[in-house]
Amino acid sequence: MNLDFSKLTVYTNSLLAYRLFVLGQNNPLLAPQIIPKLEENGLYLAAANLAEKLKTSYSREELNNARKTITEKKNQIGQTKNLQNRNALKELFIQLGDLYFKYGDLVEAYAAYYKAHENNQTQEALNYANSWVTCMILSNNYMHYKVINVSPKDSDVKGYQKWLLLSAIRNYVRMDYKNFLIDLLQIDTNHLESVDFITSYFDLSKYFAIASLITKLPKDIIEILQNPFIIRILDADSSVLETLNCYIDYDFVQLIQKSQLLIIELERDVISAPLISQIKEKVINTLLKQYIINFKRMSLVSLANLLNLKQFEAQMLVENLIKTEGLNYVIDPIEMIIHEKYTNEQQQIRQCHQLGITVLKALDHKYFQILQDQK
């Protein structure tokens, strides 16, 4: 398998390098193509990590220099521990975390930022929170995400805007779409110059679409689309706005098809990839529920065709949705239709109707026999 780097130009080089590193960890056979990209962006520890997975030797002067710089910082930390100066230790651990992150070791960077947090004697964590949460997201490790407390800080407005974005993505990967949107809608485009330090507007537009489809009614999305930061996000991919417009217009046939394409796009995103099966299930269930409640009855065959599923798969999907969401619908296994539950009066009328059809068929059959006998 060869990587087509031309299709990955929506990312900056540094972001692309980190994403490629995550890809290489999961697909070691791609490592020979990825290592040069890591080296271009100074991620020598990441390159050494992938080389080790391939069981090949890796030696670079830049790697040795990186390790030397890290060792010097560790020596500083050791000396400061003897002085029992926790504030100085916090700053040194932040610097150590920054070095590990600069050279591509997410695990050690995460550990260093955690040590900084342990030595934090104040409530303010913004000076290391952004880097720490970035490590959490890229390494898919959220063991300590609850311990970080960040509040608006006048002296670092841009830093706080970055925190809002990182907090939003952290909520996205936890599938807390309500708080994802709350964070996202607080972002001021005047103070967030770029999102490329962790994601791209291209992918962020898709996160926004998923969260909106799952948590918002069509009328609510119309208002959100006026938000300046959301406008900036959607400019990166017009197909996402088309998908949301289908939802607003209740065009569920087009919406289901476009949302499936949206999920396919997310499969290549390292942030979304670990969650893709849950995202797919959540989106399909949400849209299917919205679709079904617009009809009193529908064919199970047509629904299966719409979802590109086999008939029995569509039937199981609907049965599960009826059970989990408490929908007032049932599946008729004989006629293979989905319909609203009948009231007692409707059931009696239906039974009378069915009885009448049965009697008429019997009379027709009897009349036909009489005609045959007269011949």
TrEMBL record:
Swiss-Prot/TrEMBL keywords: Cytoplasm, Nucleus, Signalosome, TPR repeat
TPR repeats: 90-123
Pfam families: PCI (PF01399)
UniProt GO cellular component terms: COP9 signalosome; cytoplasm
PCI domain mapped to chain residues: 173-345
Compartments in which it is found: Cytoplasm; Nucleus
Keyword Cytoplasm: yes
Presence of the UniProt keyword Lipoprotein in the record: no
Main location per the UniProt record: cytoplasm
Domain of life per record: Eukaryota
Protein name stated in the entry: PCI domain-containing protein
Species in which this protein is naturally found: Paramecium octaurelia
